[in-house]
Amino acid sequence: MTNNEQFKNHDNEDWFVETGVLNSDQCRLTIKIGRKLIEKQSKYQNILAFENEKFGRCLVLDDAIQCTELDECSYQEMISFLPLNIHPNPERVLIIGGGDGGVAREVAKHPLVKHVVQCEIDSEVVKISKKYLPFMGVGFENEKLKLFFQDGYEYVRNHKNEFDVIITDSSDPKGPATTLYQSEYYQALYECLRHDGIICCQAESYWFDLEFIKNLFHKVQQIFPSLAYASTAVASYPSGQIGFLIASKSKTVDFKHAKHQEKFQKIAEKLRYYSPEMHSSAFILPMFVQRQLDQVLNNP
Ligand code: SPM
């Protein structure tokens, strides 16, 4: 055993273990480290990139898998195109976090998006992604994008009424991401949005983190008049599922039906996961989840 998260098995092979950020009482994911590309402690977190035969190149931050070459499309495309195809005219987009570049890569593809601002706290993640994970790092090369290395909460607090869509592509609520799950942050997002603006935030797994999600819903519904949870499947995350909290300044928003289909059709062949059908189905939740979230929504 080298540390809690990497170990050698009896064949002397290196493995990565994720024990869970919100629930650390069980070992939930192990992936063999075929070849370690880099491991580095930045000012904010531990960054590990490695290769695995099935998953391809993988990025781990503070012991939690962020993305793998095999399945990153299901997270990056859904967190990007769900809000972009709910908003009536998503011209100005802000990305908070997303240091691997995958979300910037997707957002810039959207035909209606004109300007993208990204605020990432850790420049080391961006450097490592560009060098070792170029399939995502390529996202930083788009001319629609302006990238700032800054604390996301500080950025949104200082920009009012500027964006149509704000995407929070954060890691789990630990370390540098902790402030991105607090009421003050959602209030600042509300003020940073233009009329009818929409937020879409990483919102954990309903299998392991339902109490956390309910708590998040409770906070956000004090600020935004409409909200919903959308789900996607990510094979490399410990429960195989993750969701997004989507909230709108509009009282009458239709979350479930993808807009802009004629224009969006032009980029459909560049996508691996998102489609109008995947969009609608993301909002269909298991009964035990829907009941619990409805209970929160009906008791503000
Ligand atoms: N651009 C992709 C970054 C991914 N950000 C989300 C990472 C979540 C990792 N943990 C998932 C486990 C659910 N508790």
How many angstroms does the end-to-end distance come to?
47 Å
State the fourth-level CATH superfamily of the largest domain.
Answer: Vaccinia Virus protein VP39
Kindly report the spatial arrangement of strands forming the biggest sheet.
Answer: 10-9-8-11-12-14-13
Tell me the overall shape: globular
Number of domains: 2
- Percentage beta strand: 25-35%
Radius of gyration from CA coordinates: 18 Å
Average predicted confidence as pLDDT: 94
Overall CATH architecture of the largest domain: 3-Layer(aba) Sandwich
What is the fold named in CATH at topology level of the largest domain? Rossmann fold
Structural class: alpha/beta
Number of helices: 10
Low-confidence stretches: none
Give the biggest sheet.
7 strands, mixed
Tell me roughly what share of residues is in helical segments.
25-40%
Structure description:
- The longest helix has 13 residues, at 72-84.
- Helix content is 29%, strand content 29%.
- The strands form three sheets. The chain has a seven-stranded mixed sheet with strand order 10-9-8-11-12-14-13, sandwiched between helices. The chain has a four-stranded antiparallel sheet with strand order 4-5-6-7, with helices on one face.
- It is built from ten helices and 14 strands.
- It is α/β, with parallel strands linked by helices and 300 residues long.
- The protein has helices spanning 72-84, 102-109, 123-132, 134-137, 152-157, 183-192, 210-221, 261-264, 276-282, 287-298, and strands at 6-8, 14-18, 29-32, 35-41, 46-52, 56-61, 64-68, 92-97, 115-120, 145-149, 163-169, 193-202, 226-233, 241-248.
- The protein folds into two domains: 3-68, Spermidine synthase, tetramerisation domain (Spermidine Synthase, Chain: A, domain 2), CATH 2.30.140.10; 72-297, Vaccinia Virus protein VP39 (Rossmann fold, 3-Layer(aba) Sandwich).
- The mean pLDDT is 94.
- Helix 1 (72-84) packs across helix 2.
- A hairpin with a 3-residue loop joins strand 5 and strand 6.
- The N and C termini lie far apart (47 Å).
- The protein binds spermine.
